[in-house]
Amino acid sequence: MGIEKAAHGEALGATAKIAARRRAWALAVLCGCAAMIANSPAARAQAPGATGAQSSSAGSSSSSDATAAAVESAQNPANNYTIQQSIEVGVRDSMIGGNIDNYDTFENLGSGPRLLDYTLSMHAVNHRGLLFDDLTFSSFGYGGDPDDVSRLSVDKNKWYDFRAMFRRDKNFWNYDLLANPLNPSSSNPAVAISGSPQSLDLTRWMQDYDVTLLPQSRLRFRLGYSRNTNQGPATSTVEGGTEPLLSQLLLYQTNSYRIGFDYTGIAKTTLSFDELLTYSKINETENDNDLTYQLSSGTPVDLGLVFNTVGSSPCAAPITNATTTPPTVSPTCNAYLSYSEYQNPRSSFPTERFRFQSTYIKNLTMAGSAGYSDANKDVTDFNEAISDYSSRTAQRGSTDAGPTAAKRISVEANWSGDYRLTDKLDLSDEFTYDDWRIPSMWAEAETNLFGTKPQAAGQTGLLLPISMFTPATFASVCPSPYSALNCPQHSASSAADVVDEQISQFLGQDAKSNTVELKYDVASRVSAYIGYEFMARAISDFSATYGTGTIYFPGGTTGTVANDYLAARGSCALVAGALPAGCVPNSNGSINYGSSTLITPTAGNDTVRNLYEIHENVGTLGISARPMDTLRLNGELMFGYNDNSFTRISPRQIQSYKLHATYTPKPWASIDGAIDINDNRDNVYTVDNIEHARAYSFMTTLSPNAGLWIDFGYNYMDIYTQTEICFDDTGSTVFTSACPVTGATGNLGTLSYYTSKDHYAYANVMWKPYKRVTAMIGYAGTIARGTTTNLNPLTPTGTLDFNYLKPQASLAIEIYRGVTYKTTWNYFGYNDHGVANPIGLAPLPLQDFNGSNIMFSLLDTF
């Protein structure tokens, strides 16, 4: 017994000694930490009278003070954040050859230093931050890349949640086959247009700011603001006697304001309301700065882009003296001396929307919304001024102006519900209502200018002075019989001298749809559903032009009493020797068509509102199965029929077949495949619309260990479409069939088709041969082959037939803890595989570009 007591006492003593040692070590660590904190700059700043030396007699006191200082410091918000940052900077060297405009259209990655990525994360422990609890910030792309993005997220528990984003996109587009006139080599001169007449170089700045106040309360408020600015130069054309290349300056700006609230005071229900106010403005100016030729008088002139002298565009023999600088051209060519246009549309889009979500009723989940919008768009000072010459109409210029206004009134609502009938049976229904209408009006004020008779020897076409007069002065400038020197020289095809018209248009749609779906869990691993959708649409449109003061003035070498000295032309051309209704002769020889008191529909005008009713019926059937833990299968069938169509390429019959499978034989291996087949058609007489889109995809991801990762896949897309079309053409040797569509404006017709077969393949391998070394090699390639109906036999195959291959490789080395060096190489190889320059085309530059980008970067994480 004594021995046992002694042993027990020794054991208790040993245990006590161990506990004492632990307490001593813990006290030492605590005192050490307290001492370090007490001697930190922050602690010294809080106790400016303290010194680093402490007397031995105050040992216990200093230890206690240090511990108190440590606790105080831990509670100080300035020291209560965990902070993580990373920054990656680098420099890119781009070595690209070939068609640089095409490369910039596709990639636009240039040389120079870059901020590849920067991230900052701050987190307050236990939500005890002073002004915020969490802050994250990230940026990438700065330094010259076409896309720059910055994101900021800041929140304070229970008080607010703030999100901000800034984006800058550089949108360069100059694919030279877009809108290219494709001038023939037989033209004299043969002029190839090497850049797209519809190019642009815009920069878009986008800002978004959103804040939620009291995010965890029953009533939370949301405020937001967005600003989107798209600005830069562009080019365009205008159709007339010729097509000049116009220089544009564009500014598109939108400001959006958002305010809303969410209420969760009703059990299992959320109610939301939003007020959206959007204001947009457009400032657009266009000018003809492509005056690369001159008249014999030295006046600069633009012959336009279309050079087909065999077809008299801009005329049969445009160059009269090629030795001058710039070359001198014939004054009887279709050409422009000047062009200017300005417009400033302004729009407002106020929208109110109410939303709800609820699971208040057992087994029923509901959601819905209702919204109303009343938008307005106005153009108050549209102005276009042209100085040109058209050999067909003898016109020497024009002006066009007048205010325009449009509204868009929209009402929309939807409701969806999902009801769990049994553990295995589920019924869902969704109803949508969408009604909108867009009425518009343009009060057009146009004047058309014509030349006088020759004032001196050799004056003709563009060299002729413009006949200047007003309705009040016409009788003195050009008295009867309208053959004076300053009389306007019209032809039978000339437009009216003064055009005052009111153009009214309307487009609207009333659509209602309902979709019901029944889902049944056949077994634990198999479920199926069947659904039906019905939609009823009513589309109405209207377009009418009314004359409110159109005036045809007399004058011209072919004018006679029989044709009122060419005043009886256009809408007032004689019918059976008499003026049509609405045409009133004036004492000065002119003829009025309509007036402010006699508003008259123009010739060929359709004043009847068209109504199209379309009923759509769609049935769906789907199945989802998991026959084994490693295999998932999903399939869907859809069949639909419409009893009418609004456009010639709107399908009336639709079929869709989809199959998706995912197989994971190992945790580190995944195989995914999909088939998506869609067939549409409206194969009634004179339409003959048939379409299909078939896609097949396959991809695999393998990661057998932490040092190896493999990813590869293949996608195939087959697209086909055909439709009967009608078009205007004279003297075509390729198309000779008459247009089969009643009422069409084109004289010729053909079956237009488009087919494209696209192959896309990719593969990536990541390998870590050593702990600090990561290597990656990859490849992506697109091969497209297609054909289409070309109304112009000089059309290159372009994007219908090309190869675009993009291999890449990278090497990353961790040279120090948290510091990584990386080299990345990208290759771009775009090759036009088809016919780039058909026989007879004035040769265009090749679309090909090839080259490399090498990036050297350094990543630091701290």
Number of strands: 37
Strand percentage, roughly?
Answer: over 45%
Distance between the termini: 64 Å
Q: Helix- and strand-based class?
A: mainly beta
Helical segment count: 5
Q: Compute the CA-based radius of gyration.
A: 38 Å
Mass-distribution shape: globular
Major β-sheet profile? 30 strands, antiparallel
Indicate the low-confidence ranges by residue numbers: 1-78
Average pLDDT, to the nearest integer? 88
Estimated helix fraction = under 10%
Q: What is this structure, in a nutshell?
A:
The chain is mainly beta and 862 residues long.
Note down, in words, how this protein is organized.
- With about 850 residues, the chain is mainly β.
- The protein is built from five helices and 37 strands.
- It has a 30-stranded antiparallel β-sheet that branches.
- Helix 1 packs across helix 3 (about 60-75).
- It is globular.
- About 15% of the residues are buried.
- Mean pLDDT is about 90; it is low at about 1-80.
Q: SSE layout and pairings?
A:
Blueprint: H1 2-38, H2 41-46, H3 59-75, E1 81-98, H4 100-106, E2 112-124, E3 134-140, E4 147-156, E5 160-173, E6 200-213, E7 219-237, E8 245-263, E9 269-287, E10 293-294, E11 300-301, E12 319-321, E13 328-329, E14 335-343, E15 346-358, E16 364-379, E17 383-389, E18 395-401, E19 404-420, E20 425-450, H5 474-477, E21 498-523, E22 526-547, E23 550-552, E24 583-585, E25 591-593, E26 600-601, E27 606-628, E28 631-642, E29 653-666, E30 669-682, E31 689-705, E32 708-727, E33 748-770, E34 773-788, E35 801-816, E36 819-832, E37 849-861
Antiparallel strand pairs: 1-2, 1-37, 2-3, 3-4, 4-5, 5-6, 6-7, 7-8, 8-9, 9-14, 9-15, 10-11, 12-13, 14-17, 15-16, 16-19, 17-18, 18-20, 19-20, 20-21, 21-22, 22-26, 22-27, 23-25, 24-25, 27-28, 28-29, 29-30, 30-31, 31-32, 32-33, 33-34, 34-35, 35-36, 36-37
